[in-house]
Amino acid sequence: MMINSVGHHHHMVVDLRAELAGRGWDAKLYASRDCDPTIRAMAAAACFDHLPRIRIYPMPEADIGAVNYRFQQSLESITPRIEPGDTVFVTLAGHRNLFGILGWLEAMEPERRPRVALMLAAAECFVDFKDTVHNRNSRIFQTVCRAIAGLFIGTGMPAPLFFTPSAFYTDHLASLFGPDVAIGSFPYSFQRSTGVVAALAVPPRVGLFGNTGWVQKGLERFLEAAQILLAEREGVRFFTQIDFSLEPAAASASAGGRLAGYRDVLDHSAVTVSSGPLEPADYDAQLSRCALAVLPYGPSYRRMHSGILFEALHRGRPVVLPAHSQVACDAAALGIAMPVFTEWSGAGVAAAIRDGLDHYPLYEAEARRASNLVDRLPSGGERLAALLTGTEGL
């Protein structure tokens, strides 16, 4: 995400560094030694020899232990750079590096320990999208996070900060941690418009944006919906960003096969296709020109937020949402109504798009009302900076 200048991780780093600088805090970014030039240009200290996604051994137990140990060694490489009062924010902490973080902290003299903030990869606590708990991983999070918190009890030092991606995961881990370990939902950052919002395209355009390489993003459902709507009505246009760049190489290699059945849509004169990541300015303009943004997401989004929802609403654009999802809950929390689909299928998504277009003045008014609310919200970077500097509590 940081390499492509897209998504919440990129916006988080950019926003957070700016907010911390405004508060008089210095921010150093530590990355792997083979990091991309884009990340190096952000003044990253390329010092990590190992990251938790990299596999070492085929046997899971041995691999988990080895990866944690290697991650601990990488953390130890930055210990000489840490001063009393510093905070270390690990942006992805899961069962493949939590033990390493604990081992690193335990090996330090108590007065040398920095405050730690951990973004927990809490999806690892579940086997599937049906709330089946992954007992081993949940026990790892419970045991290690409680142990990390225990290192700071009675020391007079600030307690660790634990975050999860959504309220769903926060509730699960809070039930495991108990009242002595505070945990909150992560304050997401999203890309705000950099200037005057571009005018709507005429005829109206319906758009899909983001990392469409992941099946749960619903690229196929969107293309199926476009097939249906292009056959039944004139005067509608579609824009689709097809971006597999954030997915593993195997997934990217299968792109041709996944798209083979949709050539009639992708080659249609009323459909504009953008391949790969969009530059922030281009993304801003393309999203602003869409009458409707579509989030044709699958079951995983019952637990997950989406920055695109807030990016579209910020620009006064309605959004098609899955009814049973965290993003629908986020829209409801703003007190607005958006077109929704209840069935994750091409027909279901097409029906929601049809509703959005047929009742556009209603949904546009709702989106513009939401825009005023979103504009008044502090950015994710502001809230995160306040948490990390101790001026706001979880």
TrEMBL record:
Organism: Azospirillum doebereinerae
Protein name (Swiss-Prot/TrEMBL): Glycosyltransferase family 1 protein
Keywords: Transferase
A GO molecular function held by the record: transferase activity
Lineage top rank: taxon: Bacteria
Keyword match Transferase: yes
